[in-house]
Amino acid sequence: MRQWAQELGFSQIGVAGVDLSSAEPGLMQWLAQGFHGEMHYMESHGLKRARPAELVPGTVSVITARMDYLPRDTPIDAPPGWQALELARLQRPEEGIVSVYARGRDYHKVLRARLQKLCDRIAQELGPLGHRVFTDSAPVLEAELARRSGQGWRGKHTLVLHREGGSMFFLGEIYVDMPLAPSDPVTAHCGSCRACMDVCPTQAIIAPHRLDARRCISYLTIEHSGPIPLELRPLIGNRIYGCDDCQLACPWNKYARASVLPDFDARSPLVGQPLVQLFAWDEATFLRHTEGGPMRRIGHERWLRNIAIALGNALRSADAASAPALRAALHSRADDASALVREHVQWALAQGAVQAL
């Protein structure tokens, strides 16, 4: 089965049991504290997330899989290293930064299709197989299942870490009605390191293994649908979709591997582009450039909201030569049909006054 998975582009597979009862108290506490923000689906699903056999009756084992997603042309072994190159983007305030995972094809589609092919191959060899595949699309405790099946350990940023792959990979699961021997979990290797916690711009990692999603830039720019809290806007910088900071700071990600698939190669309109140019996209352009990718789900309105914040942050530090273009871009949408966009544009323009003080 491992060879079949490798042929399909997976880095590793493992097996976990379905008794996740020990993870239930932590899940319920996290929800009770409201750390999930507007992700109400997490609360509505309740403990079903920790009970695979309730989600898919008949499930007795879970096959887990991970798939590397760094683009194939990522300079893995060449200095200064891919992490340094990505960190450098954050020092160019007039450039829009899209999280690495979102620059290519939608991972949901890629993993689901390949997990299904793996199921078909297993069924060919072993006979009819009751199953259901998942990739970040249902009430599944993905990271916990991955940890239990030996895919890695939970880092202090809550992501799964692997000694030979860092955290730059997607997770997928196959719930099956076949008893399989569980894989052995691995030991944790974060030690006293807290690089991910210290680097987080909004201090969303409030304690080791405890994330307040309401402060997380990935949550704010993707999941959150309304106005971004005022106190967090300056901290977002030029991040317009997601945030990789905790992964860029993690020492284990020097071992991250590039994908073997072309699906996650970066699309040029989403990398290294000026905020002014991205802000000029009309809805048709946004849909064209995000077709088949994960970014389309936020829609054009949130896209403009996010870029307006980044433009305001850029304006606050802009010099006399670049400030006029930033202001002109913002003024072009000062009367946007969306009240959400208008409010963020007004805030952004006010940052020019902050700069002058």
Would you give an account of this structure?
The protein is α+β, with helices and mostly antiparallel strands. It has one domain. The chain is built from 16 helices and ten strands. The chain has helices spanning 2-7, 24-32, 40-44, 52-55, 82-89, 107-126, 142-148, 195-199, 217-223, 233-236, 245-248, 275-279, 283-289, 299-317, 323-331, 339-356, and strands at residues 12-16, 61-68, 97-98, 131-134, 153-154, 160-161, 169-176, 205-207, 210-211, 239-241. Strands 1-2-7-4 form a four-stranded antiparallel beta sheet, sandwiched between helices. Helix 14 (299-317) packs antiparallel against helix 15 (323-331), helix 14 (299-317) packs parallel to helix 16 (339-356) and helix 15 (323-331) packs antiparallel against helix 16. The longest helix has 20 residues, at 107-126. 41% of the residues are buried. The model has no long low-confidence stretch (mean pLDDT 93).
Give the topology.
Elements: H1 2-7, E1 12-16, H2 24-32, H3 40-44, H4 52-55, E2 61-68, H5 82-89, E3 97-98, H6 107-126, E4 131-134, H7 142-148, E5 153-154, E6 160-161, E7 169-176, H8 195-199, E8 205-207, E9 210-211, H9 217-223, H10 233-236, E10 239-241, H11 245-248, H12 275-279, H13 283-289, H14 299-317, H15 323-331, H16 339-356
Parallel strand pairs: 3-10
Antiparallel strand pairs: 1-2, 2-7, 4-7, 5-6, 8-9
